[in-house]
Amino acid sequence: MGGVDEAKIGSSIMVRAYRDQLSIGWLVVRAGLAWLTVFADLSIAGQDLDPEAARSGLRTVVYGGMPQAVPGVAERPVFWAGAGLSEVRGGVGQRVEYSGSLLVRNPGRIRFSAKLAGRLELLVDGRSVLSGQSSGLLLAGDPVELSGGDHEVLVRYWRVEGVEPGQLAIFWSGDDFTLEPLPADVFSHYPQSGDADLSELSAGRTISDALRCSACHEGWGESDPLRAPDLGTALPHLSDEEIVRRLMSGAGNHSMPHFGMTREQSESATAWLRSVTGPAAGALPATVVKKGDREAGERLLLTLGCVACHQVSADEVERQWYGGPALIRGASSRSRGWLEQWLQSPEKLNVSHRMLN
């Protein structure tokens, strides 16, 4: 095993981790947000609760950093605390365990790897197939022979002093497939007493985290409130009409509350914002498109993981708790300068962004 520079696999492969992330901090949920689960279309919340049937996802338990061990169910073992996600906000020494079954569809020699900031131990059928500590690099294990079918899996993750933010995403590769994140549909667990409530809590925590309730409502003081994009850097790249539209009807798949402003109110607010942030950026020279650029761009979109959270056409966008806006709609409302800045250094436009740089 050894550390491999994350650039060799493209850090954007982590984008799937954001869509599937389930928060572990649950005080806000216990305070009243669990009722939101009736609106969740997540598979964990809506599946049959037959006590004899396996359910999707892995059983989770968080130890340390909270008054008691916190149980739950997660679609898969992934998170990135630096994205403002609350999965592992506790201090050094906090441990998260994921347990259940792993479905192997392609038997043979399989190598497990992890994009890791912390310490990890991964066991399959009681055997350690990946273990170690990393500060953000790719940790790779030795290939192991696995038969087709379900295998018992146990994942242990620890926060480590001096390694911030906490991060975990597990990948696998084999003789007939390249390195890819472990998909949610290979994980399952059999229910135990009380699991129906755990499923509801897990879905409620996802909604609470995705809608950024903690930006206004505190939990256990685990983290600072999430911050919205800096208007001074964002608004110069939006037209007046786009700002008015967003204030009136929202910006699509986003977490900002809709305040029901009228056009007159929105135009007044836009005028004031312009007086503070300055006028819209001027048009940039037209992009020179060379032969093959469009095809190369399409390959990047489809291979770097962009479509895990974004769809190309606005009419294809489905509601996802961690989904991003439609790319066509987003590109049409942004200047070229803004798009270049966002792709290169998104933290300069929004320090609490959820897009991997």
Automatic annotation (TrEMBL):
Keywords: Heme, Iron, Metal-binding. Residues 199-277 form the Cytochrome c domain. One of its GO terms (molecular function) is heme binding. This is Cytochrome c domain-containing protein.
